[in-house]
TrEMBL record:
This is Carbohydrate diacid transcriptional activator CdaR. Residues 309-366 form the PucR C-terminal helix-turn-helix domain. It comes from the Bacteria. The lineage of its organism: Bacteria, Pseudomonadati, Pseudomonadota, Gammaproteobacteria, Pasteurellales. It comes from [Actinobacillus] rossii. Transmembrane segments: none annotated. It holds the Pfam family HTH_30.
């Protein structure tokens, strides 16, 4: 642990709140790096050097002050210790008999601040490397042996089922992102998180109860109360049997999110299982093969300016090709629906009685905007 200027200034600030005397903090070379008197910054402090060499408090009285040609002032200098090692010195200016009673108190306060800073740095280090681990598993770039070893190190259960979850902030700011991460660390400490970019956070959620990953309320609990319903989208990948397979869940969550973005889906919580086919075929939809396959559907879109036929086609498939059910959903007579379907066949030159043609039309409703 190194005593830097920022930490030293915190010690000075805290000490001067406790005692009515000037305070200096010196590094392990005896240089004043923080002081209640800014004119003393950067000076070499003989008393601090002696305290470090002798590993004990050094009192400087009027006689010693004169002997050292007034290069130091009266006071007491006490080593600051961390893990049995002297990392610096704290000095209290004043007549020794007056400041002596504050020495132990100030030393205790200084070392407590150092310990807190060290603990915070340890937590930051662990959080940073845990985040790198999560991203490495998601890509994936780590061999299975390393995943298992690092999972143990970070306290994650390797053989437990997991789902990957992507939370996308619609209008992201640094404050919102930090609020989300802080909320997750406090209220969902078992999950592993990583920042993907300024808009998205990745979560590896261990599954401890069957079906919990399909409950909408469960995932809504991952958002801070300050977040509105439309402030973000939560995309849940498929459940996998272990941490080694969670990259598949992550890829499926990503595909689902990309599909949702392309189709402008406004739903807050999206499950890969509900969008399996269009999510997995999202990349195919951008290919030249898809352009060739969906030519009849593009022809339909060109002629159907008001999108009446396209919406009819979508509802027909959403109703599992049940004419009566689809007609009820569209608030039209079944004969009107039959007329529209006949019109679609005429424009596309595809037949609902041929399975291949029907599949082309179905995929088109899923993949074309």
């Amino acid at each position: 642990m190194k005593l830097d200027k920022f930490l030293a200034q915190n010690i000075v600030k805290r000490a001067t709140q406790i005692i009515p005397y000037a305070v200096n903090v010196m590094d392990n070379h005896g240089i004043i790096i923080a002081s209640s008197d800014i004119n003393r910054l950067g000076q070499y402090h003989l008393g601090a050097v002696q305290a470090l060499r002798q590993n004990q408090a050094i009192e400087i009285n009027a006689q010693l002050e004169q002997q050292w040609h007034f290069e130091v002032r009266q006071g007491i200098n006490i080593p600051i210790t961390y893990l049995n090692e002297n990392i610096g010195v704290i000095g209290i200016s004043g007549q020794p008999e007056l400041v002596r009673e504050y020495a132990k108190l100030v030393k205790m306060a200084a070392e407590l601040i150092v310990e807190q800073a060290a603990q915070l740095e340890k937590e930051r280090w662990q959080s940073r490397y845990k985040e790198e681990f999560v991203l490495s598993v998601a890509k994936p770039t780590l061999p299975i042996e390393q995943i298992e070893k690092q999972a143990i190190f970070f306290g994650l259960k390797y053989t437990q089922p997991y789902v990957a979850v992507v939370i996308k902030l619609i209008e992201s700011t640094a404050e919102k992102l930090q609020l989300l991460l802080t909320y997750l660390s406090h209220h969902h400490p078992k999950v592993a998180t990583a920042i993907m970019d300024l808009q998205k956070v990745l979560i590896f959620q261990p599954i401890e109860q069957n079906g919990v990953n399909k409950q909408t309320k469960f995932w809504q609990s991952y958002l801070p109360p300050e977040f509105s319903l439309n402030s973000c989208q939560i995309v849940i990948g498929n459940e996998v049997s272990s941490l080694a397979e969670v990259s598949y869940s992550y890829q499926n969550a990503q595909q689902t999110l990309q599909y949702a973005e392309r189709m402008h889906l406004k739903k807050q919580i999206l499950f890969f299982e509900e969008y399996r086919m269009p999510a997995l075929l999202a990349d195919f939809a951008q290919s030249w093969q898809a352009e060739m396959l969906f030519k009849p559907a593009y022809r339909l879109a060109e002629q159907d300016k008001k999108r009446v036929l396209l919406k009819t086609l979508q509802q027909y498939f959403f109703s599992n090709c049940d004419l009566d059910h689809a007609a009820k959903k569209l608030f039209i007579h079944p004969n009107t629906l039959r007329y529209r379907l006949d019109k679609i066949e005429q424009i596309t030159a595809l037949s609902f009685n041929k399975i291949e043609d029907k599949v082309i039309l179905y995929l088109a409703t899923l993949l074309i905007k």
